[in-house]
């Protein structure tokens, strides 16, 4: 699914937020418990949004968001020392999951290999996201996945 053109999503990048688009940014320590914490906080944010904003975010979207959060935070923890920033935003018809870490090296998806054990995280994210953006920052990198809100029944 992650094959749409960047131009479609540029207007949804940081700095273009509408007042009614809920957002949260979470600083994660990068320790062993940060992956579970990130998943829990993502679910809490989306659940709060669905009740507080009346958006009716489906369980499937919550599950997919937790999966993407888990994969991106796991990669950040594995390959970059130090803290991780997780930003979640419900914008228009998507949930945006953005992860920043201190390693400037952009990841690359490996070719599918059913014999390979592990290292499928980016493949998974690309499969469930409507769009995936990776960019180097002055310090580190930022990876953003856009998940459609219509990924299943509410």
UniProtKB/TrEMBL annotation:
| Source taxon at top rank | Bacteria
Q: Which UniProt keywords apply?
A: ATP-binding, Kinase, Nucleotide-binding, Serine/threonine-protein kinase, Transferase
One GO MF annotation is: ATP binding
One matching Pfam family is HATPase_c_2
What range(s) does the Histidine kinase/HSP90-like ATPase domain occupy?
A: 38-144
Annotated region (Disordered) at: 1-23
InterPro entries hit by this protein: Anti-sigma-factor_SerPK, HATPase_C_sf, HATPase_dom
Q: Would you tell me the protein name for this molecule?
A: ATP-binding protein
Q: Which organism is it from?
A: Streptomyces lannensis
């Amino acid at each position: 699914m992650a094959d749409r053109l960047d131009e479609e999503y540029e207007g949804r990048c940081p700095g273009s937020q509408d007042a009614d688009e809920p957002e949260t940014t979470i600083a994660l320590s990068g320790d062993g418990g940060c992956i579970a914490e990130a998943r829990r906080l993502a679910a809490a944010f989306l659940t709060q949004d669905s009740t507080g904003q009346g958006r009716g975010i489906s369980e499937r979207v919550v599950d997919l968001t937790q999966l993407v959060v888990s994969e991106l935070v796991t990669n950040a923890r594995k390959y970059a020392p130090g803290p991780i920033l997780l930003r979640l935003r419900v914008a228009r018809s998507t949930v945006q999951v953005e992860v920043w870490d201190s390693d400037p090296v952009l990841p690359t998806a490996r070719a599918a290999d059913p014999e390979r054990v592990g290292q499928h995280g980016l493949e998974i994210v690309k499969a469930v996201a409507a769009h995936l953006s990776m960019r180097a920052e002055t310090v580190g990198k930022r990876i953003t996945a856009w998940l459609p809100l219509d990924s299943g029944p509410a």
